[in-house]
Amino acid sequence: MLSYDLDKYDQYKFEYDQFVKSKTSPRYSALSLAVTYNSEVANLMKYESLGSRNDAFLIVPSIFNSPEILFLSGENNFVENLRQQGEVYLVNWKETYIQLKLEDLIRELQKIINFVRKNNQKNIHLIGHCIGGNICVAVTQHLNCGTLGQFETRLSISSLSLLTTPWDFSHFGNLRLILENCGLESAIKESDLIPKIYVQIMFFLMFPSQYKEKIDKYFALSPDSRQLFLRVEDWLQSGISIPKSLYLQIIEEFCLNNIIYNKKWKVNGSIVDPKQINVPTCIIYAKKDQIVPYSSIVPLQKMIKNSTVIEVDGGHVAYLVSPSLKFQQQYNNWLKTALDFK
């Protein structure tokens, strides 16, 4: 049974509430030059290049939280590093009542890639974070193999980066019991739009001890470090409510039935198979990641022949919140090889 120091919890809540009241606009929107593409499903943010190369990086974030995690480390952030190499585009998923499935998000990403290619004629390097990486794998395979369906031109991806992206979801095997015991399944039936709090509750119930560990860690930090900690906490509370159809697909098909690992996930009538990907691919995993442990990433490493694996310290987003010099050097060295790949 969990126990908490209520005085410590109350102090943490007070400091977090004060932070929320004083925070400014999200960096991902404040730093964007413009919204260059807009639909009912997503818009596209653009960040100018700080380098001389004629390349474009297209980032696909997770659908569960805002893209702000890519900007939290200030001037040292992931996007700022990419801007040294070329233009950066960021997909910003919208809240919608349209009963979407992942296949719809894949088709949306194909449209965005078509838009970027037509307007810029640049090499496109695709980057996916968490389940955004699953979307990127499907798109890269289908675009590079020519199974485009409605798209008029053969597109291609020059490289692929997968940031803590799961492929084997078997570690979520106890999820059914959690959902049944806490009554979330019956609550979900009543709504077409699943509130983001439900997703947060689900992750809390899967890893309940993390909350106490988080509070203890916060009070062990210096006052300056606590500000970054609170920004991460605010990011964890961010995100959008998602359509029930999308939520149920992820829970039922991915987490419980593990269809992508079992090669049963189809897009445009074809199985999504990473073995067909032949572009340079960088796979990043975090040693202490409980949401996407190494065991869930190993299949991607084995299936994608032209892949490089980078191991980082910490949990699921630690390498984005506080990127180490070692990680940046490793990723930049891989990028240099990928950008020059023919």
Query: N-to-C terminal Cα separation, in Å?
Result: 56 Å
Radius of gyration: 20 Å
Structurally, the number of domains stands at 1
Sheet bearing the most strands, described?
Answer: 8 strands, mixed
Give the overall form. Answer: globular
- Let me know the CATH homologous superfamily: Alpha/Beta hydrolase fold, catalytic domain
Level-2 CATH architecture: 3-Layer(aba) Sandwich
**What is the arithmetic mean of pLDDT?**
87
Strand sequence of the main sheet, in spatial order?
A: 1-2-4-3-5-6-11-12
Pfam families: Abhydrolase_1 (PF00561)
InterPro entries: AB_hydrolase_1, AB_hydrolase_fold, PHA/PHB_synthase
Keywords: Hydrolase
GO molecular function: hydrolase activity
Topology:
Layout: H1 6-22, H2 27-30, E1 34-38, E2 42-47, E3 55-60, H3 78-83, E4 87-93, H4 102-120, E5 123-129, H5 131-145, E6 159-163, H6 175-182, H7 184-188, E7 193-194, H8 196-206, H9 209-220, H10 223-236, E8 242-243, H11 244-256, E9 266-267, E10 270-271, E11 281-286, H12 294-303, E12 307-312, H13 318-321, H14 325-339
Parallel strand pairs: 3-4, 3-5, 5-6, 6-11, 11-12
Antiparallel strand pairs: 1-2, 2-4, 7-8, 9-10
Keywords: Hydrolase
Protein name: PhaC superfamily alpha/beta hydrolase domain protein
GO molecular function: hydrolase activity
